[in-house]
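Researcher: Please generate the 3D structure of the following complex. Treat every line as part of one assembly.
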Amino acid sequence: MREVLIICRKELRSFFDSLIAYILLVLFLGFSGFFTWMYGSDIFLVGQTTLRGFFSVAYWSLFFFIPALTMRLLAEEKKTGTIELLLTKAVSDRQVVLGKFLGTLALVSIALLFTAPYVITLANIGNLDQGEILCGYFALLLMSGAYTSIGLFTSSITNNQIVAFLTAIFIGLFFHLIFEVLASNFSGWLGALFSMLSLSSHYDSISRGVLDSRDLIYFASIMIVGLLLAELSLTKRNVA
Amino acid sequence: MDIEIENLSKRYGTQKAVDNISFKVRTGEILGFLGPNGAGKSTTMKMITGYLAIGDGNIKIGGDAVSDAGDGIRRHIGYLPENNPLYLDMPVMDYLAFCAALQGVADDKIPVRVREMIRVTGLNKEKHKKIGELSKGYRQRVGLAQAMIHDPEILILDEPTTGLDPNQIVEIRKLIREIGKEKTVILSTHILPEVEATCDRILIINKGKIVADGTSETLRKQASGSEIIKVRIEDGSHGDIQFALRQLAGASQVDLLDAAMNRFEVQSQPGASLRRDIFKMCTEKGWVLTEMTALETRLEDIFRNLTMN
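Model: Done. Output below.
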């Protein structure tokens, strides 16, 4: 566990060292703030003390930002050869993958933490449904975890960061949108299957405040499968 | 800690990178790993460090098989990979602290170790810079520092002196010799004088197989039993001298190098030594021997003989 934390801390630091973290924070807060407070169906237009607007903006902006964070995690190390340095230290492949996963998730959490003023402001304007807010953040974190693990996997299969980014978006798009569209076009078991695979339906139910074990298992399984595949493709260096 | 390698093989597809090699390195020994490009040096080192899985055979470190031991065994190994990959956007000190932490150095000991390695490798002026801002030689020092940060018992260095200037090379070699007294060191290199200067033992591999194993002296003896001597003899005509040299019992070849200076190169029959005979010949004929140098077979020649075919 110590090794995982060391790698996690190092990844988080290198996000800040390489300015990626600042760019992400500015873009994410700028986007979500603009659409939550100033433009479109913002809070003043809707006239309700709810952060639903923010959550739906974050739902899409994180979808694009997370692959941008994860694309370099393993691809860059493979390209520069530092992966050899890392894996010949007293750490396992799994610890490396987990550390990088947690490091990215930590950065996303920091970004979400910076939206706390939204919550505080709303709480001062009117009555806030605290449960809904908490569940909304929780759903965002789960979704981030799922996309981080997918991004980590795509980063592990290539040493080109752009390829890693685009592949992650491509795979992510299925969960984000395509399965849902397919679900509405098919009926019967096929439709049920697609709606089960669709991330948005699980996301919606959690962000509405319904904590169902099926949704939790859904997110947990995406994360576990993504991380295991990433670990597997790291270990695959042996099978040349 | 000893390293024992038993019948190690590794194939990439159909190509055998390492083909059934066995050797042993003892504590306090510095092993020089030589071989042409693509001979399997790096592959062997990568298997010892656990980066690549072992194809066939066995690697034992301190008596334990690497395949059975967990990741913890790598705490005993310091490794400098080929081309010295580094995190270029990390500051030197942070990077060394990160490596120390990963190798299991206790948190309170990390600053001490980092300072110690910075002192040993002479990085004091550069310690706050990002690694990407350093010149190649300094990066190489950072690479060496991270390999030794946890005071490992085994040091595996893949071409440790590439990119260093001559002064640094001397320093690093001295450092490696120093470390090699108590530790087990394997280093690979293309620079043959370096092997002679630093290593106790030389292992030459070619096409995945060991072709020579021994100290530089034993390799020389194996490679050529004959002795080559350069002589300069005065007070005689070069024709007479050359004729007389050819008459010597043990001489196999006599070449005139420089007629004006009366310089010759004499090669002996395998196993024979000519030095005393040449001296006696000169005293008998009344010539004056003003120069006699025994030429050693150069390691380069041995290397070429063993790896060119």
